[in-house]
Design a protein that fits this description.
Helix content: 25-40%
Distance between the termini: 36 Å
Number of domains: 1
CATH architecture: 3-Layer(aba) Sandwich
Mean pLDDT: 91
CATH superfamily: Alkaline Phosphatase, subunit A
Shape: globular
Number of helices: 7
Structural class: alpha/beta
Radius of gyration: 17 Å
Largest sheet: 4 strands, parallel
Length: 194
């Protein structure tokens, strides 16, 4: 528990040119009161699993090791196996083949002893797990959820939809209010899902 919580809210697929007083008045007001990072650009490739890993680690794909939404992993016998990086089993498979899920620590790893993190993610389980593949914090997703060191039941009532984003946002607000983590991450699936 900390006195202050940094909040990171991502709306998957929302480009800055789509935010305007006419189209998104609430976001526009929030944006006009906050800080805009004019030099910010997405990762390349600009795929959710890559961007999730880069956001979680602060590193480019060549450093954290997740280079696309689909990847081939080399096993101990030198055989390549294709994987969907959005699947819940991808990062555990990468850990089994390479000894680690990502090649560098995530913010969840680094903040575990400094107030921890709460991550509520309404995108693929692989993208959600990229924020905390080592179960250092609290992760809530419709397919995979955990608290430090142990799995929790998934939020199966949440769908990849506007209604699902509303439910995950309510859960996020409840979790950050009760836990007061150092960092709260809310990753919404819209507008990318539609």
């Amino acid at each position: 528990m900390t006195d202050k919580t940094a909040l990171l809210v991502i709306m998957d697929g929302l480009r800055r040119d789509a935010v305007s007083p006419e189209r998104t008045p609430h976001l526009w007001r929030l944006w006009s009161r906050g800080t805009a990072f004019g030099q910010y650009r997405s990762m390349f490739p600009s795929a959710t699993r890559v961007v999730s890993s880069s956001t979680a680690t602060g590193c480019v794909p060549a450093t954290h090791g997740l280079a696309g939404n689909s990847m081939a992993l080399l096993d101990a016998d030198g055989q390549l196996h294709p994987h969907d990086a959005g699947a819940a089993g991808f990062l555990p498979a990468r850990r089994a083949m390479h000894g680690r899920a990502l090649d560098v620590p995530t913010m969840a790893d680094r903040l575990a002893v400094h107030g921890g993190v709460v991550i509520c993610s309404n995108v693929s389980p692989g993208a959600a797990l990229a924020h905390d593949p080592n179960q250092a914090g609290h992760l809530f997703n419709r397919v995979v959820s955990h608290e430090p060191g142990r799995p929790l039941p998934p939020l199966s009532e949440i769908t990849l939809s506007v209604a699902g984003d509303r439910l995950i946002t309510e859960r996020f607000l409840s979790e950050i209010t009760s836990r007061r983590p150092a960092l709260g991450v809310l990753w919404l699936g819209e507008p990318d899902a539609t």
